[in-house]
Amino acid sequence: MNRSYDDPKRIYISVKQKFWISHVAAGLWMLFSIGVSMPWLQDFARFVTLPAAILIIAGISYIPGYMNAFMIVSLLLDRQPPLPEGSPEWPVTVLIACHNEERGIRTTLAYLAEQEYAGPMKVIVIDNNSSDLTTERAKAAGRELGLDLLVIEEKTPGKNHALNTALNLVETDLMITLDADTLLHKLAVKHIVSRMESAPPDICAVAGAVLVRNSRHNFWAKLQEWDYFLGIASIKRLQGMFQGTLVAQGAFSLYKTDAVRAVEGWPDAIGEDIVLTWKFLARRWRVYFEPLAVAFTDVPESFRHLVRQRSRWARGMIEALKMLKPWNQPSIYAKYLTGCNLLMPYLDLVYTFCWLPGLVLAFFGIFWIVGPATLLVLPLTFIQNFILYRYQSQVFRSLNLRIRKNLFGFIAYVLLYQMVMSPVSVYGYVQEALQRKRIWK
């Protein structure tokens, strides 16, 4: 009998089997939800017609419940392969695209200088049309820290232009993209390169785990800490398990240089990293996620900047869907994972224009939209977050990190976060439909 790689007593379950087991479990949960919700559906249909009631309740309860159940079962079945022993020595180039980063670029470079990585590491800082002293501060930091550093300037605004200019100068087989406000754990480069070193030949990129650095500052930062720590991490783990991480994010990811060149570099898109990753998947290449390769980034601290960032993410997803259709993806896993994004505008619209007004009505005793069946999603949400919390706690302990105490942020994240994010995403969809001007930062 086949056994898993990490426990000789555990029965081996293939990725394909995990995929279908998770779907069967999610389907059974959705059937249970439909059965429980029939009285609610019939009552609601008297006010809005049966087709409209089904459309609304499916967006509020059935589909989110299915997705959450699929994720929970998948995460319970997931067994992350251990990293190989020893330290990789592959030469790597780190690309840092900057726009007006004079205040923080030295700190970012200092954390790079402290990496416990045995191989040669070259750093290219690309000053993308800055109006401050980014170039001068980066050069001075490079000399002081003893880095193999090259600073170049790219006058054409746009992160894709900055990265593509640097791509022409990369001479190593592997390269890392790093945001100028992102700090790497001292083992981050070692772990992310180790994952690539042990991966099959068709793995072309590895996404790192990006967490929040400035979570102590205010309410909005505290809220986002749990989104990065639990929400985004759970999605990355799910996608990585099925060998199709959908975003090798520009904030911190490792790429095979030839793979990026083969798809002609970063595209002219507001979600350039999303489109780049989907192009990889369209070529039957796979993308991994390494939870032990940890980086810490600054998140928006004002509601205005949060709206700008998340609406940009929503626009990036729509751009990717327009450029690369999910049904054209060669892998069944990539079809499903990218196809889920087709449902996101519908779910966000229903949540914004039906669930939120329904929540207000429920306070007045009118349960047309928000009723008892909607509570079926909550247990899955808490179970999912508990599973991820336990897993992330293990990751942190292995890296000698501590989870910050942020109970208020956690409660706000579970109860309020979607109330903010769905309307913001809808705003992003509208911006993309109207082809509003793109803003990098």
Automatic annotation (TrEMBL):
Domain of life from the UniProt record: Bacteria
EC number: 2.4.-.-
Top EC group: transferase
Transmembrane annotation, as ranges: 20-41, 53-77, 332-353, 359-387, 407-430
Molecular functions (GO terms): glycosyltransferase activity
Stored Gene3D superfamilies: Spore Coat Polysaccharide Biosynthesis Protein SpsA, Chain A
Keywords attached to this entry: Glycosyltransferase, Membrane, Transferase, Transmembrane, Transmembrane helix
PANTHER family the UniProt entry points to: POLY-BETA-1,6-N-ACETYL-D-GLUCOSAMINE SYNTHASE
Family: Belongs to the glycosyltransferase 2 family.
Protein name (record): Glycosyltransferase
